[in-house]
Amino acid sequence: MLTCTGFAAQTADSPLEKFTFNRRDVGENDVQIEILFCGVCHSDLHTARNEWRDSVFPVIPGHEIVGRVTSVGSGVTNFKPGDKVGVGCLVDSCQTCASCNEGLEQYCDNGFTLTYNSPEKVIGGRTFGGYSDQIVVDKGFVLRIPEGMDLAATAPLLCAGITTYSPLRHWKAGPGKKVGIIGLGGLGHMGVKLAHAMGAYTVLFTTSPSKVADGKRLGADEVVISKDAEEMAKHANSFDLFIDTVAANHDLSPYFALLKREGTMVQVGAPEHPMPIAAFDLIFKRRNFAGSLIGGIPETQEMLDFCAKHGITSDVEIIPIQKVNEAYERMLKSDVKYRFSIDMASLKTAA
After folding, report:
1. Per the count of CB atoms within 10 A, which of 130, 168, 185, 205 is most buried?
2. What's the gap between Cα 130 and its chain centre?
3. What is the distance between the alpha carbons of residues 75 and 72, in angstroms, rounded to a whole number?
4. pTM (global) more than 0.70
5. In terms of C-beta density within 10 A (0-12 exposed, 13-18 middle, 19 or more buried), how is residue 165 classed?
6. Contacts of 77 (CB under 8 A, 6+ apart)
7. Coil/strand/helix, residue 248
8. Considering 242, 270, 291, which residue would you say is the last residue of a domain?
9. Of 247, 275, 291, which residue is a domain's last?
10. 64 and 211 share one domain
């Protein structure tokens, strides 16, 4: 067993604190990684506080992991010690079903293994995430970080980046397409950057006039204040695609009215409560409402290579692990532009 140190929530009501735990030893097809940076995702908070009612404690969150390979198993030929690598939301899947065979492990028919709070197949117990000093992962779920990328700012690409890249790619965002991004947070700011880099005419929708300038800085061709009915009406029946990144309940009808015939609204934000969809919003223009979940390993690597080519990373605020509980409270207040990235070197000095 490999003895590791991390930050864990012991209960839904307790703050994250330093915690010692075991990971499996490096197996034939495993890669051991020293974690250098780990992004903070809203899913981390949901799980640490058991808001989805499926947490098994203790919980060590973190699925936006960037680090350095320290050891590899005898069956690993594509990575070597010293390589810069990443680990996203998944660390295993059945690898035999139709989805896995197509490189769509995120839709594994038999159930994938999440980076944290999933059954650990080798040693039992639960998987522990990236708020820790090291991790052991099957080689098939390790990603190569292109040379020259800022590691702290690259970490959030492993969730926020691929969550927006995958639907943009699947619904063919690009030149000649008009794409709307709803919300400017951790997901939304990546959606704006990626849609712009793909060549789509990119429009940010926000409720906050204070975000107009930042939206344009990030690459939006236009920024629309969604509470302004007149401004919204100017875009009626004109969008090919919407990516909705908002995690709070909100009315989708005003956005459906902006979609072209056969346009698509893709939900990637995950509101706590079901949202009503008016049937006529879909029926009259043969519009589509869809969902999308991260990406498979091949597409995630493609996303990293695309970001390296176009100079794209997440906008981050780097914090020590000692401030992660404070970061959770700030995240609830949208007090971050646009993602926290934990410098895991700070774990060595944590009490």
Report:
1. 130
2. 14
3. 8
4. yes
5. buried
6. none
7. coil
8. 291
9. 291
10. no
